[in-house]
């Protein structure tokens, strides 16, 4: 279990911060009084534009989270330029691959949704452990607790993200390092802009706005909760899955038939 995290005066990094959920997190952290928020994104121009919009406490940084050396260098540079990193939001994500996808889809999903968090932990945790404090927030997905019927690479690697976040929370809690895991269902961002009425994510219910997700994150950081569920119904879905896996798979099969019927008619 994470301890309460107080935002005012902190230095925070948000990967995938150029848009969507990452941008909303950065905006909210700044309005809560963070001293520095670094928006790190492989889309360097957009990260810089986003930081310019958010004012002088926001800083854009070009970063590919799947490049371990670049992550290590970013950590060192940010700590030198600003202050020790209090919170790293490992939020960058990709929607790669329909169905079973191809090997390139699996590779990029594994690198961005799992290895990127490993790289962040390798670079940050020794520093945080030495200070006796620090927080890593992993943006996984409700797909990592349940499943996303549209894409196996996304769903499986998000399960990996949840498992890794749990492992890190358990293994590093004694060092004063807290970990939390953000698992939204659908959110209106560039990633879901192409979702039509038959998108499997719509099964879970209404899409939230990125600002709603940021609201849930700030509340969970304040309460010191590991699992952050901006759609509270995801907790009930996960419970039903755990209670009776066969019944859950049967229900999901029926849902899949419904989606396929709707997309044939649409
Ligand atoms: N939108 C949803 O419905 C939803 C639901 C659950 C979880 N998520 C997760 O939330 C996170 C944010 O997604 P979003 O919806 O805001 O999408 P988005 O596409 O708006 O933002 C993702 C950002 O990640 C950046 N990115 C991708 N690969 C990168 C890399 N290798 N290095 C650095 N940056 C990289 C992109 O440039 C982009 O700015 C992702 O991890 C996503 O999987 C999204």
TrEMBL record:
Which keywords describe this protein according to UniProt? Oxidoreductase
- Signal peptide residues are none
What positions belong to coiled-coil segments? none
GO MF terms, alphabetically ordered: oxidoreductase activity
Q: Where is the Ketoreductase domain?
A: 10-173
SUPFAM superfamilies assigned to the protein according to its UniProt record, in alphabetical order:
NAD(P)-binding Rossmann-fold domains
Superkingdom of origin: Bacteria
Family label: Belongs to the short-chain dehydrogenases/reductases (SDR) family.
PANTHER family assigned to the protein according to its UniProt record, in alphabetical order = 5-KETO-D-GLUCONATE 5-REDUCTASE (PTHR43669), ALCOHOL DEHYDROGENASE, PUTATIVE (AFU_ORTHOLOGUE AFUA_3G03445)-RELATED (PTHR43669:SF3)
Please give the name of this protein: NAD(P)-dependent dehydrogenase (Short-subunit alcohol dehydrogenase family)
Gene source species: Spinactinospora alkalitolerans
